[in-house]
Structures are given as structure tokens and as C-alpha cells.
Amino acid sequence: MLSALGYHRSVLAYVRRVDEHAWAALRGGPVGGVGDVLLRNAYRLEESAHPAVHQAGRRAAEALGVDAEVEFFQVRGNGDANAFYLHQDGKAIVVFEGSLLDQLEPGELTAVMGHELAHRVLWDAEDGAYLAVDRLLDAAAGDARTPAQYLETHRRWGLATELYADRGALTACGDLSTTVRALLKLQTGLSTADPEAYLRQADELDLSTGSRGTTHPEGVARAWALKNWLAGEDVESLITGPLDVDAPDLLDAVVLRELSADFAAWIAQTDGLRTDAVATFAAGFTDRPLGEPGTSFPRFDEPLAVRPVDGAPLPRPRPLTEATKRYLCYLLLDLATADPDTGDAGLVASLAIARRARLTSYDDLADDELGWSDKRRAKLTQAADEVVG
């Protein structure tokens, strides 16, 4: 049985806590009202004339545990072959556009049905909890006043939902090659395609930087995710990518605040920078007492083991983008210069911290901002190297 992705569960937990009233207001069953529109503007695919469509639909519904009535419609569309799902009260509706039905073999059609009906499985899960989040994020995305963190969450939520639906396609038809071939036909419009070649193509890519898709992951990334999901691998890095201070979602914003607070605590309790002024400045990076730093000094040249948000599953370590490392360099420099009384001792301490944290661009950044002479820089860096040993 399909289960929601870790990203879905994390966002749901966050929204329940932070936007409880908005989430509750949008929670409810499927909507009605499009039946008359479809009857007026589309062709209903009845079983007597289109038995293969209904056979594929029944096979997918049984595999996914969908017990609602399913109706199928064909619309002209804009020429592109496509299919989409409409979440309706009392029934599920799958709509086909263009020439897609003419392109698909029975197993491929079952995969497409599974993808579309998987949306219903997700929206029905936990009494419609994920549907409410989807509605909330859709509403936020349509408002020009929405903060960027919500927009990025909306984008990643869409990617996660499509990966979930792809798993529904694979569950329905039971074969990876068939599922990928159906995906290829949808994307390319080809009547024949080689799924194994596409999977080899996926293996040539570094997908650790995440998907750049806006509504769907790139097709090759979706094929890669299906293959690795079958192998028991965690593929959610495709959704989240590296930890990027320039484009955080709601969850990453929490992680970045925690990271900033932890790093500030380390800095404020380092010899040479342990003053009241530095501690006060460091406390500005957190809304809780600064507290003690973690048990091990952070290293930012390797994937960072971040804490889960709101009790979600422990995420995989995340690499940091160069923008995030630069932000951490500025955090360090701000604290190193927060108290003029620390003088050179504070600067040396900050350079030593940068070496321990593997913030390799810190020396150049500090030099650019503070305007050191070559002689002064050499003196400070030599002293820092001696501290680190």
C-alpha cells in the first residue's frame, strides 16, 4: 500500500502547528460541480465502446484500494497527450487529452490510471489531511502577498505528490519498464520508447542537487526515483536538494534557524570571543536561550545531519550550497566584529573557527570586508593556524 512521502508528513505536521485554523478551514471532502461541465464539453468513455479503458481503470483501482466509482472522459485539449485527475464527491474522474489513448498499450494505460488514481488515495488519506494542505498551498501560491517560503513549499509539495503518484503507477501495473515507457510516451509523444535506455540516461546525472521542476520533476528524475524506490533507496533528496539559504521552504527555514543558533552558540563560547557583547549578538539568531552548543563541532564541507522538523522522520544529511556557506561566513564575521574589545584575538578565533568548520572562503570574505593589508592578513592567518594546530 502506498504511504505518503516523508516530505508530505513533515509539511502536514508543520501546517497543523503553524496554520491550524487555515488548514482546518480547508479540510473537507472532495468537491462537486464539474460533472455538468464535463458532460457539456467532453466525451464520456463508456465501457461498451472503450472496454480497454475500463479494464485498465479497474486493475489500477484494485491495486491501489480505490473503491469509488471511476468515470473516464476525453477532451480535445491543445494537442498535447495528457491525463489528469479530478477529485469529486462520490466518484473519481480521469480525463484524457489529445491522442494519449491511441499511444498506450494496456499495461501502460494501467500505469497512467494508477498515477491519476494515486492522487485520490493521497487526498483521502488521514481523513483528507493532505488534501487540506494541498488546498492551502494552492491558495497561497495564487496570492501575490505570499512569502517566498510558502511558494517554495508549494513547488516541492507538487514534486513530492507527483513522485507519490508515479509510485501509484508502478503499483498499478507492477512493472518498472512499463511504467517508465508510459512516462516517456506522455512526455515525448512517441509511439515507441526504450525505458532501459532512459534509466541508463538517468544514471549519468547527478540528481543530488534536486529537481528544478516547477510542477513535476523532470522525466528522467522521475524514472530514476522509481528505480531507486524499488531498490529501497531514499529518493527524497530529489525534492529537497541541498540546504539553500537563498531558496528555503517552510521546513528549511526552521532548519536554517536551528543551524544559525547552534553555530552562533559555538562562536560565542569560543576563547577570544566569549564576551557579553558577543553573547548578546549571538542570541539574536534564536528565539530561545542560546544554550550550550552541540557535542561535536560542525563541519560544513560535508552533508549536514539536520534535525527533523515537528517529529518527522530523520532526514538524510544535506549538503550546503555555496550561498549557505557564504551566509555562515557572514554570521561568523558579524560575531567576530560584534565586540570591538575582542580585537585581534577575536579575529584570530574566528579564523580558527572557519578552519575547524571548513568554511574555506571565510579568509577572503573577511579580508574583503575588513580591508586587511597583506602583512596583517598573514599575521592573523598564521596565528589561527597555530591555534588549530
UniProtKB/TrEMBL annotation:
UniProt cofactor(s): Zn(2+)
One Pfam family named in its UniProt record: Peptidase_M48
Compartments it resides in: Cell membrane
Database matches in InterPro entries: HtpX_protease, Peptidase_M48
Membrane topology: Multi-pass membrane protein
GO MF: metal ion binding; metalloendopeptidase activity
Keywords, alphabetical: Cell membrane, Hydrolase, Membrane, Metal-binding, Metalloprotease, Protease, Transmembrane, Transmembrane helix, Zinc
Domain of life, per lineage: Bacteria
Protein's UniProt keywords contain Cell membrane: yes
Cofactor binding: number and manner: Binds 1 zinc ion per subunit.
Listed GO biological process terms: proteolysis
Record flagged with keyword Transcription regulation: no
Family recorded in the similarity comment: Belongs to the peptidase M48 family.
PANTHER family per record: PROTEASE HTPX
Protein name: Peptidase M48-like protein
Lineage: Bacteria, Bacillati, Actinomycetota, Actinomycetes, Propionibacteriales
